[in-house]
Amino acid sequence: MWKRNGLSLVLLALTVLFIAGQALSGLQVHNEELVHHGRAPLDLWHYLASGHFVSATFENWESEFLQMGMYVLLTVSLRQRGSAESRPLDPAQEHARIEPGPTPWPVLRGGIWKTLYGHSLAIAFGLLFLVSFSLHAVGSWKAEQVEQQLQGLPPPSFLEHLTSSTFWFESMQNWQSEFLAVLALVVLTIFLRQKDSPQSKPVQAPHAQTGD
Q: What's the gap between Cα 19 and its chain centre?
């Protein structure tokens, strides 16, 4: 179990750990703000459904899914000389080795099923991004409603919030940081190495070698 699934298990554990840390620290911050304005603090369960937590969580998830979805699509046809994150410049250097085993059923079925399966990774990331974007929008709207009420101002409608500079600032600051992270990975793997990492070229590989 551990040998076959260790990477996913550790990543899942870290994800749960940091989400729990975000929830506990966010609860404290949000309750301090509520008490400061004379409102009753929330318990953890109600905080998890609040705009403060939902917006912060899915604001980051949407940028992650946008980053990976675009990365999957862009690396289909674009190349970066010398990067371990790029497909080789020469198609002759690509040798996709297929492990023995049962062929996925969409491939056997053919037609539209095979076509959809051939793009299913990008489609999945696209759907995950849309879901996260929608939940971020709703959570951010609920958070702004509470904030406006605390200040004695009328809460905005969902459309007003969706077209506000505040909402798009939340999104853009995450999107740009995610694409910067991908750019750094693509460029740094041209010149730098990490021994035994699948994201790096072999230590002895020349800088000009493209692909892993």
A: 14
**Of the candidates 186, 209, 180, the residue with the CA atom closest to the CA atom of residue 199:** 186
Q: Which residue has the higher pLDDT, 94 or 151?
A: 151
Report CA dihedral (136, 137, 139, 140) to the nearest 10 degrees: 100
Query: What residue has token string 């072999």?
Result: 202
Q: Quick check: 122 and 73 in contact, CB under 8 A?
A: yes
Distance (Å, rounded) from C-alpha 117 to C-alpha 109? 11
> Closest Cα to residue 79, out of 97, 94, 98, 95?
94
Q: Is the pTM above the cut of 0.85?
A: no
Cα 130 to chain centroid, rounded: 11
- C-alpha to C-alpha distance for 124 and 157, rounded to whole angstroms: 30
**Chain centroid to CA 177:** 11
Confidence of residue 95 (pLDDT cuts 50, 70, 90): low
- Quote the CA–CA distance of 134 and 153 in Å, as a whole number: 25
Distance CA 201, CA 212 (A): 5
- How far is residue 68's CA from residue 78's CA, in Å, rounded to a whole number? 15
* Number of other CB atoms surrounding residue 11 within 10 Å: 10
Q: Supply angle C-alpha 179, 181, 185, rounded to 5.
A: 115
DSSP 92: G
